[in-house]
Amino acid sequence: MSEQEEELENDPSVVKDYKDLEKVVQNKVEDAFYKGELRLNGEKLWKKSRMVKVGDTLDLLIGEDKEAETETVMRVLLKKVLEENGK
């Protein structure tokens, strides 16, 4: 287990069954954006250029029950934000 994984495992704000999605491909995120399946801090994400900061939550819609009016989301809590050039 890496130091980062260990740190997150001991963090009380991290949900049980947390999974590190650092390896999620950019194309999958882009596809979700164009399908309207991304929410930033509870609001639908309309612009890809929207700035994010540590502490923001990004929700990816992964299921919807229209009858029960509920959505199932995968929530990402931003712990670290890199500069635009990736540093």
From TrEMBL:
It comes from Nyctereutes procyonoides (Raccoon dog). It holds the Pfam family MTRES1_C. InterPro entries: MTRES1_C (IPR057896). It comes from the Eukaryota. One of its GO terms (molecular function) is RNA binding. Residues 24-85 form the Mitochondrial transcription rescue factor 1 C-terminal domain. GO terms for cellular component: mitochondrion. GO terms for biological process: regulation of mitochondrial transcription. This is (raccoon dog) hypothetical protein.
